Model the fold of this input.
Amino acid sequence: MDYRNLGRSGLKVPVLSFGTGTFGGGGDFFKAWGSAEVAEATRLVDVCLEAGLTLFDSADVYSGGRAEEILGAAIKGRRDQVLISTKATFRCGPGPNDVGSARAHLIPAVEAALRRLGTDYIDLFQLHGFDALTPVEEALGVLDELVRAGKIRYIGCSNFSGWHLMKSLAASERHGWSRYVAHQAYYSLVGRDYEGELMPLALDQGVGAVVWSPLGWGRLTGKLRRGQPKPEQSRLNSALVVQKGPQVADELLFKVVDALEAVAAETGKTVPQVALNWVLRRPSVATVIVGARNEAQLRENLGAVGWALTPAQVAALDAASAVPLVYPYWHQRGFEERNPKPV
Done:
């Protein structure tokens, strides 16, 4: 397993990390992802550590906190061997302050996460989404206090727009506070919006991408083929999951899948391994989160590292997944002499 610095920090993280959204299976949404309990989760952690995958990502809303509890049990007695990333911001209770990035929510959210995880510190704590109703100075001030108290070691954010992230980085610099070193963002061969503004920002400001759903919300597993029905076991069989996830036109999806199948045949790898390897090679990417319902899926995902696509194969995948740029990026691309592409 290769390791990379997480953004402009000294923290080394594995290029693949494990997402615990498949732990617990609480509610219809997360049940569609998976429902591993402690015994199975412990085995998955064993396999990860054997492969050098040491970073585990969770969130307080994953199965109502159950995913964090299961992760805590699975790593018990080996906390010093792992890195833990978790998140808060989304609603986790009925009260008016059970949501958001205000002091009233973040402090108890971190304390609750520490209890569920069975640890006294979190390696990477991220705001799960932008809270437009709380000043960025309030959120960052609280996070800085938690870093100074030793309860958090590094901070990041997730699902921010470019101006959300830049405003936050400017506030941290202005006040001398801890700054975001990670941005957990959606990025895949069927979802390349990240490249427009967030990737250049990340490269300029030293913010490492922690990529979620690199297989396009389960669309690039190799099981979705042109003219064939969806497999019986797929998160895409859940209308709730499809509704809440990124939308992908069928024409784009099958064009990308066709290209992936061709490259998979050339390399002797599987479709998801090729899709993951493509994301791993992109600028600003620090680590790519993979999930797994079971050990077989995990081992297949681990096969995405240790080899590289050729420039011709990358070009073929780039061409198949290309979509028209939105403004102002198509305009800037017309002046590439002064606005060079980061890729």
Remarks:
- Residues 140 and 172 are 7 Å apart (CA to CA).
- The chain has one domain: 3-333.
- The beta strands are 3-5, 12-14, 16-19, 55-57, 83-88, 122-127, 152-158, 180-186, 208-212, 285-290.
- The chain has a mean pLDDT of 94.
